[in-house]
Amino acid sequence: MIKYLKYLALVCLALSCTKPEAGNKKDTIEIDAGTTIYGRVSSDGGVPVEFAVVSDGVKCVRTGADGVYQLASAKKNGIVYICPPPYYTVGRTGSQPLFYQLLESEPSSPERHDFTLTSDPDQDNHTRFVFGDIHVYNDNSAGYFSNLFVSKVNKMLLPGVYKIPVGLTLGDMSWDLHWYKSNYRNTKYIALANALNLPVFNTVGNHDHDMKFDGHWINSKQELEDTGEDWKVEIPYREKQGPTCYSWNIGKIHYISMDDVLTLDDGTGDDDGRGCTLGFTEADLQWLREDLKFVNPGKPIVLSVHIPFSNIEGTIRSSYEKLNRFAGLNSKHMLEPFKGHNLQLVLSAHIHNLYNNKVTIGDISFPEFNCGAVCGHFWSTSSKGLSICSDGVPNGFRIMEWSGEKLKSNIYQPLEKKGFYPFRSYDRNCIQITSEKSQSEAMASGFYTKSSDNYVYISVWDWKEGWSISVTENGKELPVENLGRIFDPLALLMRSNGMSSVSRAGFDMRRVKASSPNSTLVITVKDEYGHSATETMTRPKEFSIATYKAEDYSK
To answer: How far apart are CA 464 and CA 476, in angstroms?
Structure first.
């Protein structure tokens, strides 16, 4: 990392993340033998903060009653960062939390890095805004990001609406291919994201790795560990967006963000970034063990990663796409450090779909929420005024409200809709999709030919245990059939109107049979927290982009 330190001033300017003042220069700290990073953590006028955890990405230590920490660090990661104890918070510049500092000296030279916190006693009630794949990679995407996403979030952050709103990305904020192709590096994303009116912590994704780093193709897990290739291609991320494995506390919840992306090749000639697979390096797992030694076994833990542990079908992922090169990466040992701890929830992204699964890996069981994508399918349908993911789910993000140790609300918020908007209805009599781009999916889903059978299809997203759906016609309840995995008709239509890739089938398509082609249906979907959305569906209902662009049945 030393050869990168000459860029330190420029890096810090881009981050607006300069080292805080050390305070009173007479405030000396007696350094232990072997210490290379040390400092004091204080708050509210210089009061020492005990039990703050400080890490170099390898080791974790905790401050004493005097607020002092000392690390015997080899400075491999070129960074030092803090996990504040509960009921404290860090400052921020723009949306960037000031919880880490870049190192400045040679590995053997001791250097001081102090941290200043602010007491925040009301954290038990807090809100997480969770952002899946964002992908700011050219001027068009930057415009959609600012005008659709940033403006949406900021308008929602009215005083008193959400308790302590804190953002969390789930990786792929930019796009490594376009760092070079379009000169849109992650610093441009950071500058745009600074307009958000809340602190935003990040999770590293596969497209946040440097695709053109001078490396070589990796052929085995052992070679990955020996060469440090995965570590090298993350240097630009660490220097500009912080650590790849870290934790922080808000109220009664311990949040952990980890890098579960293993990169496999040097990106040469690759048009879509580096090949990758799911897994943790041994260095990542060692850091996790260090972090968890300071976490009480019963404390709820929320883990954020980029690549999901489970597929949309509910099976455990063993590799990414066709790169099934490393046996056992997703073995029962992958989450072994969590044994004896309360892993309450995993948040993931990566595939630009929205789904929820109950997952068991080895002895560890947990729910996993895959959180969709802010960019949908790389913003490719946003020019139509109807932004969707490849499974038909609207572009959006999660809003998760916590009360103590429990979630009291968890909704998926579309960018272009208001409030709770969890479904979309289709009048099958009005659907016929014959485009060559979507022909095979339309045939597989039964949408290729005309129909007069008076079926109504209802695509529901984010379905979880405790949800319900009811459909009535003239006051009479209709039986609702669950079709399982099927392609979304609107996604097939958008594939013919600008979506840049083939659609993906979701799992939550329902169907009812109406008594006539022009009857009115009342459709209501409720979630496990009591949120409810109702559409009075007047039929025939035109199947068009304009219909669904204008639709809004939120309360």
So the answer is: 26
| DSSP E strands, 326-427 | 342-348, 354-361, 364-371, 396-403, 406-414, 423-427
* pLDDT at residue number 338: 96
At 19 the pLDDT is 40
pLDDT of residue 321: 38
Percentage of the chain lying above the pLDDT 70 cut: 87
Closest CA to 490 of 423, 394, 393, 392: 392
Structure tokens at 24: 């009173």
Q: Quote the CA–CA distance of 510 and 488 in Å, as a whole number.
A: 11
Is pLDDT above 90 for 439? no
Q: How far apart are CA 77 and CA 96, in angstroms?
A: 19
Whole-angstrom distance, CA of residue 402 vs CA of residue 81? 25
Phi, psi of 437 (to 5 degrees): -65, -30
Tokens of 118: 């602010």
Return the minimum-mean-pLDDT range out of 15-19, 189-193, 482-486: 15-19
Q: Which residues 6+ apart lie within 8 Å of 25 measured at CB?
A: none
CA separation for the pair 263, 539 (Å, rounded): 51
CB 320 within 8 A of CB 276: yes
Give CA 520 to chain center in angstroms: 39
3-class DSSP state for residue 346? strand
Residue with tokens 């916190």: 117
**Percent residues over pLDDT 90 in the chain:** 72
Instruction: Check pLDDT > 60 for residue 424.
Output: yes
In 404-486, which ranges are E strands?
406-414, 423-427, 455-460, 468-473, 476-477, 481-486
What's the token pair of residue 291?
């972090």
Q: Give whole-number Cα distances, 70 to 3, 45, 64, 90, 542, in Å.
A: 25, 22, 10, 20, 67
What mean pLDDT comes out for the span 135-142?
Answer: 96
| pLDDT tens-place string over residues 309-347 | 998 888 887 654 334 445 445 456 778 999 999 999 999
Q: CA 334, CA 314: separation in Å to the nearest integer?
A: 18
Buried b (16+ CB within 10 A) or exposed e, 462-471: bbeeebebeb
Residues 6+ positions from 240 with CB-CB distance below 8 Å: 11, 14, 15, 186, 187, 190
Pair type for strands 276-278 and 246-250: unpaired
Place of tokens 């590293």: 204
Measure the CA–CA gap between 307 and 205, rounded to whole angstroms: 8
pLDDT band of residue 215 (cuts 50, 70, 90) is low
pTM (2 d.p.): 0.92
Six-digit token string for 223:
């070679």
Angstrom distance (rounded) from CA 151 to CA 142? 12
Locate the DSSP E strands across 273-417: 276-278, 300-304, 342-348, 354-361, 364-371, 396-403, 406-414
Mean pLDDT over 512-525 rounds to 98
